[in-house]
Amino acid sequence: MQQRNMEEKDLAACARLFARVFSADPWNEPWDDELALRRLVHFHDSSGFVGVVAQRQEVVGFALGNLEPFCTGTLFYLREMCINTAQQSKGVGTQLYHALQRELESRHVRAVYLATYRGIPAASFYEGRGFHRSDNMAFYAKRLATSPLATD
Ligand SMILES: CC(C)(COP(=O)(O)OP(=O)(O)OC[C@H]1O[C@@H](n2cnc3c(N)ncnc32)[C@H](O)[C@@H]1OP(=O)(O)O)[C@@H](O)C(=O)NCCC(=O)NCCS
């Protein structure tokens, strides 16, 4: 298994993987390849993009997000991470996360943050990798009549 930085040429394969993983349990979201590619391209083309992929013959997983300036230094907002469903729970996500963290440390990033649901398997994955759920911060969302939110 190889971990390396994500390149633009990886986006299509990552989008196909993303659409498959997040269409399945426990997410069951209505992704197709085109919608997934649009989302990943958005992050890729945004300021401060950092992404890593895990690869055998093909891409098995990826993690990506964007660096953000903050008053205490640079933060990284981890926006998406997924491992091929058939390859989950075999340590690939842990290796991939460590590759991402090494990359962020080399860029002197102060902290990584992310939003996800409580109680899903991914939450215990992040907690096992040293993340803690904030008692002080909350994630707010408001549904607007014209724009259904995928967050509730
Ligand atoms: C969450 C995810 C990235 C973890 O990667 P992974 O390769 O399955 O995880 P690993 O095998 O490296 O680590 C397993 C650890 O995470 C936990 N875990 C997280 N998700 C798990 C899952 N779906 N199945 C089994 N264990 C899971 C286990 O408790 C285990 O903890 P431990 O090492 O302390 O015993 C991956 O399962 C995944 O892509 N899930 C679907 C998409 C998703 O939820 N992404 C995150 C959205 S915020």
Task: Give a structural overview.
With 152 residues, the chain is an alpha+beta fold. The chain has one domain: Gcn5-related N-acetyltransferase (GNAT) (Aminopeptidase, 3-Layer(aba) Sandwich). The chain has 4 helices and 5 strands. The protein has helices spanning 11-23, 33-44, 92-106, 121-128, and strands spanning 2-5, 49-55, 59-70, 73-83, 111-113. Strands 1-2-3-4-5 form a 5-stranded mixed β-sheet. Helix 3 (92-106) links the parallel strand 4 and strand 5. Helix 1 crosses helix 2 (33-44). The longest helix is centred in the middle third of the chain and has 15 residues, at 92-106. It starts with a strand and ends in a 24-residue tail after the last helix. The mean pLDDT is 95. The site of coenzyme A (COA) has 17 residues, from strand 4, helix 3 and helix 4. Coenzyme A (COA) is lined by residues 21, 81-83, 88-94, 116, 121-122, 124-125, 128. This is N-acetyltransferase domain-containing protein. It comes from Litchfieldella qijiaojingensis. Residues 1-152 form the N-acetyltransferase domain.
Q: Name the CATH superfamily assignment.
A: Gcn5-related N-acetyltransferase (GNAT)
Largest sheet: 5 strands, mixed
Overall number of domains: 1
Bound compounds, each kind once, are: coenzyme A
CATH architecture classification name: 3-Layer(aba) Sandwich
Report the count of strand segments: 5
Could you give the distance between the termini? 35 Å
Helix content: 25-40%
How many helical elements? 4
Overall average residue pLDDT: 95
Record the strand order, biggest sheet: 1-2-3-4-5
Provide the CATH top-level class.
Alpha Beta
Any idea what the shape is? globular
Which stretches of 5+ consecutive residues score pLDDT under 50? none
InterPro entries: Acyl_CoA_acyltransferase, GNAT_dom
Organism: Litchfieldella qijiaojingensis
Protein name: N-acetyltransferase domain-containing protein
